[in-house]
């Protein structure tokens, strides 16, 4: 499996496109600039199966409607943030004058628990990692040694918890209980910034001292 990191929008939120040799792909967190993402998909002759969201802050969902409509694919999100796709006050876009209000249609599928999921030829584990937001999810692809962690864990940092519904203690517990137990060689694909590994964050992340 191949992965591509595509920073999108004013906050350079990482969208990830995971693809197989047959060009089937999954799209994670299409945050903005739908034209840029669509061009990447078309140039590489990819065939999207679904849009999957780590959480529903505005910078992770801004291109959802355009990409969903263009490729005719379903959207997956945690049920705790189902209304965030529709409400600029909940997804945070209403807080910033320089950001357009983000609102769209309901998702097609709602995730309510940890489970193994298969979409097309892609099989992965869904991990609930709340704290940055109540419905934050991480997606672990064991066969490829990678986890898409959204804004839970970054290279040398962790997700902010000063936004509405954030909870610092809950985030630290999520990282400790769900992410740091993964093999140390696991690649961590974060919502912002460069990729890292579980081992690197265990050794050097200043927010995780003691773990």
TrEMBL record:
Matching entries from InterPro entries are given as: MBL_Glyoxalase_II (IPR051453), Metallo-B-lactamas (IPR001279), RibonucZ/Hydroxyglut_hydro (IPR036866)
Note the superkingdom of the native organism: Bacteria
Keyword RNA-binding annotated: no
Q: Quote the Pfam families the UniProt record gives.
A: Lactamase_B
Q: Is Nucleotide-binding set as a keyword in this record?
A: no
Q: Which cofactor does it need?
A: Zn(2+)
Per UniProt, residues of the Metallo-beta-lactamase domain are 12-192
Arranged from A to Z, the UniProt key words for this protein are:
Hydrolase, Metal-binding, Zinc
Please report the name of this protein according to its UniProt entry. Answer: MBL fold metallo-hydrolase
Q: Which organism is it from?
A: Cytobacillus citreus
Ranked from the top, the taxonomy reads: Bacteria, Bacillati, Bacillota, Bacilli, Bacillales
